[in-house]
Amino acid sequence: MPDGAAPVLAVSGLKTVFRTRGGEVHAVNDVGFRLRPGELLGVVGESGSGKSVTMMSLLGLLPSPPAEVRAGEVIFDGRNLLTMPPEELRAVRGGGIGFIFQDPMTSLNPVFNVGFQITEPLRRHLGMDRARAEARAAELLDLVGIPDARRRLKDYPHQFSGGMRQRVMIAIALACDPKVLIADEPTTALDVTIQAQILELVRDLRQKLGMAIIWITHDLGVIAGIADRVMVMYGGQVVEEAPVKALFADPRHPYTRALLRTIPHVRGPRAARLRVIEGQPPILRAAPSACPFRARCAHAMPRCAAENPALRAVGSGHAIACFWDAPAAAEAAHG
Asked: What is the pTM of this model?
């Protein structure tokens, strides 16, 4: 995948607000990114950082009200999804862009068998007749590793295990050969063994199908094994973006560094305490005019309370939204 490849998805200036009884909550604040063909972009951050809301905003999946996408541009196949008529946007959802939700039991309809739920997008988006759609549905179940696929088309979601239900969700998302697949923490509710199987499945499918993938997670360990590039979010905005190796070798934003310190290590004393990030994420009642991480940051300075830092380049493909200069601080400490 050449660095200069034209993006398959280009997002800029995205802003999403929720109107609540207590006032507006600015959940997504000026988010932008580019996704190249065949690339896997990991989106990380703790709960409430804006990861899922950002991706659901792209496809009009948020209920309105209370949600309102207030600004931005989302270019896919040369068109802005945010200004697209609803019926055309529905054709993109499940057609050009697939979405895998976190909990398959709430995403799959319990009163329809999985065969119906896989064939529906095939018949709606691709115009297949029933026989062709059922044959394709069986191929998809086989592709995602469900044995005896043709027979299992008649089964209902409750007849599948959690891991198998997630495989069904992946099959539905892949039904129309999307150019982009968005996976919203699809392994969070699964045990470690099943999680590893799903990750291996995604690696294989990506290699076979060549689609671009956005993988949303709070687990940096997962990202280390599958991503090409990582986007770290906090307070509804991007605070660091880097190739995956650069992010782990040289994290530059204080929030990213704090996140990496919370990862448990196998080596070390057994009694070592797990590290946490003290404090709570902000509830943004207004668009941020200061750094949203400053109250939890050991390197905060007066400027952080007066100005919200913009993303700035600190290396090849590596950018941070921070005024603190980690290399200069390290040099001063050793000098």
From this structure: 0.90
